[in-house]
Design brief:
Helix content is about 55%, strand content about 5%. By secondary structure, it is mainly α. The chain has a six-stranded mixed sheet with strand order 1-3-2-6-7-9.
Length: about 675
């Protein structure tokens, strides 16, 4: 069956407007569209539908696919605007992004130029829905990476299916199987490796495949001009998209099976909108405002994100953009997107000098642009690495003090250096002793005499941060130190999430560790945890933490001595990034104590320890004054990120921690062992 020659669909243009509007509003922080990120899912379905429709027409009319012609058209359609924004963003990064962030962002620019930004983000474990205060300037390119990879693979797959068309329904069946497999992988990966589920092609292919199925359906069946059922389907689809934007939020486990809501809704809107009934959703979607935003939707998607990220970098990461500022930037992106659309995107689609030439001319230019942009970003990385990350002035080394004494500048003998700060981890990380996110089985590691009485360090990465100090304390006092730590998993009996999904492996791991400690009690258990985790239940977080800690303490205190090290300050934003932009005014990177010490579990931790009769060792005076929490003590950098202390500072705090922990160790000289 031949599809209609009127290929332009104003309703699809309107769907593009809704999709990009939802994404921009969500990124700008507008509270009434917490699930606006599903606009990308709408785009995926539209892309799958349009590309498959185009390829099917070519197969019907010519009996084959002109692959070089297809790829050259895609290159002219996508790359000019994409690379224009990419180049301008690289320039913006060099000017405004702090040096410590700039290198990673420029690496993302290279990945974008090579069409694999989604994989770069997945490898790094980026949590898109709970982005840090300094997300990548090129993070929004992830969806283009998925689509570009789809464009490479889909034409040959569709051509192979087409040539097997003598088998009735083989095309629909094949696409259906691919969609089903991809959907299952997406759901499974969402609960086990959410970043990969969010960013990878194989977990997003089903969304593009749903669009392809819609194209196959309309190829075999066109709804009647006045089909009432088609009109109802189009409205149901539109309502489903809007509902997704309203009811989903950053706490939603996504993509997973919930992604089916916007995806199926978009497919319904596309199939139902194919009728020319005056009562379908095209009645709204074909209005001029929707058509205008739909036309510039690609350019608007490209420009809005770097505008928001660069604005945040300019004002500083300690000062979140207010809602009015984000809204103003989002509105300003519209005329800028129109300029990009008018003078870059449209002229690049059908330039005579390229169309008259062979397709390889367009592909050659695309390859040259890729190499050029990647090279420019690489040179910018080299230039950034050569920029000094200290003030050029040294300061005398000194022991930690309470309260800490800060230099007011970034000393040249800072240890660890800003460049090395992110890797200044306790030794147990390199030794593979810190249990990762997925495993649920305990993996204890020990140091010290084999038959000596044991101290067990139990908790999450904040417990692991005290390993350098505790290792020395254990050695000085004749103890063996055993670590039982798991990333982002507290020793507190409370339900939390990881990557927007229930952290079930944490619950299993914690229960197993407590069971082992009760079966074979050590001389002492030292607990420490991050008191601002991602709670599954966002209500009464402080109460949850208090009850959870009491539960864990009650299970252990009757079999062994237990001590709790109070949590370290949570600065909310990486101080090292701030320092790299304030080399001669480090005091600007200190945080108010009222902010850094205001976490749901901090007070609850004290109350729970007191009720359980367990000593609480509070080292806060070595981190904060009564008013502020600085980030440098003498010549030592205290933090490697927003809430983890450096291994160097932990080791320097050994005497102070031993002064408080020593009497507890002397009270029970290994009796349990």
């Amino acid at each position: 069956m031949q599809v209609t020659r009127n290929y332009f669909r104003p309703d699809i243009q309107g769907l593009r407007a809704i999709a990009v509007g939802a994404v921009v509003a969500n990124h700008a922080g507008l509270p009434f569209l917490p699930g606006g990120y599903v606009g990308v899912d709408v785009f995926f379905v539209i892309s799958g539908f349009l590309i498959t429709s185009l390829l099917l027409r070519e197969l019907d009319e010519k009996g084959r696919i002109d692959f070089t012609g297809f790829y050259s058209r895609r290159a002219r359609r996508i790359l000019p605007a994409s690379f224009a924004v990419l180049v301008l963003s690289v320039i913006g990064a060099v000017i405004w992004i702090p040096p410590l962030l700039r290198v990673q962002m420029l690496r993302d620019a290279i990945a974008t130029a090579l069409y694999v930004p989604n994989f770069a983000l997945a490898i790094r474990g980026t949590d898109y829905l709970n982005a840090s205060s300094a997300p990548s300037l090129f993070q929004h390119y992830w969806s283009l990476g998925v689509e570009e990879q789809f464009y490479v693979l889909w034409p040959p797959i569709l051509a192979a299916v087409f040539f097997a068309r003598r088998f009735r329904g083989v095309a629909t069946l094949t696409v259906g199987v691919l969609v089903a497999v991809s959907f299952v992988v997406c759901v499974v990966e969402t609960f086990h490796a959410q970043p990969w589920a969010f960013f990878s092609l194989w977990t997003r292919a089903w969304e593009l495949g749903i669009g392809a199925l819609a194209a196959l359906v309309l190829r075999r069946w066109q709804p009647r001009q006045r089909s009432r059922s088609a009109a109802i389907a189009s409205w149901l689809g539109l309502v489903g998209i809007v509902t997704s934007c309203v009811v989903l939020n950053e706490q939603t486990t996504f993509p997973g099976y919930l992604a089916a809501l916007p995806v199926i809704a978009t497919a319904l809107a596309i199939v139902g909108g194919a009728s020319e009934s005056r009562w379908n959703s095209s009645f709204v979607l074909s209005r001029r405002p929707f058509q205008f935003i739909g036309a510039i939707s690609y350019s608007l998607y490209l420009v809005h994100w770097p505008m928001l990220v660069l604005a945040q970098a300019i004002v500083g990461y300690y000062t979140p953009l207010p809602l009015w500022a984000g809204s103003l930037i989002a509105a300003s992106a519209v005329p800028i997107a129109w300029l990009l659309y008018r003078f870059v995107e449209v002229p690049a689609r059908h330039p005579a000098w390229l169309i008259r030439g062979r397709p390889r001319r367009s592909l050659g230019l695309a390859a040259a642009a890729t190499a050029t942009v990647a090279s420019v970003a690489a040179l910018a990385i080299v230039a950034t690495i050569l920029v000094p990350l200290d003030s050029g002035r040294a300061i005398a080394a000194s022991a930690p003090t309470a309260p800490p004494i800060t230099s007011g500048f970034v000393p040249s003998n800072l240890t660890p250096s800003l460049a090395a700060s992110s890797t200044d981890n306790p030794a147990i990380y390199a030794q593979g002793c810190e249990v990762g996110y997925t495993p649920s089985t305990p993996h204890p590691c020990s140091t010290g005499p084999e038959h000596a009485p044991r101290i067990v360090l139990f908790g999450d990465s904040h417990a692991a941060a005290w390993y350098p100090a505790l290792e020395r304390i254990a050695a000085d006092n004749g103890f063996q130190l055993v670590t039982e730590t798991k990333s982002a998993c507290p020793s507190v009996d409370v339900e939390i999430s990881w990557a927007s999904a229930p952290y079930s492996s944490c619950d299993a791991w914690r229960a197993s560790v407590i069971h082992q400690l009760r079966d074979d009690p050590p001389a002492m258990v030292v607990m420490s945890n991050y008191t601002n985790p991602d709670f599954q239940d966002k209500s009464h977080e402080s109460t949850q933490w208090q009850r959870g800690l009491e539960s864990s303490l009650d299970q252990l205190k009757d079999v062994t001595q237990v001590a709790v090290i109070a949590d370290t300050p949570d600065l909310r934003v990486s101080p090292t990034v701030c320092l790299s932009a304030n080399l001669r005014s480090a005091d600007a990177c200190a945080r108010p104590a009222a902010v850094a010490l205001n976490t749901p579990g901090r007070v609850a931790e004290s109350v729970a320890a007191k009720r359980a009769g367990v000593p609480l060792i509070d080292m806060t005076e070595y981190f904060c004054t009564t008013r502020q929490c600085p980030v440098i003590s003498g010549n030592v950098l205290m933090y490697r990120d927003s809430h983890h202390i450096t291994a160097t500072y932990s080791a320097r705090l050994t005497p102070a921690l031993e002064h408080r922990l020593g009497p507890l160790l002397a009270a029970r000289p290994g009796q349990a062992d």
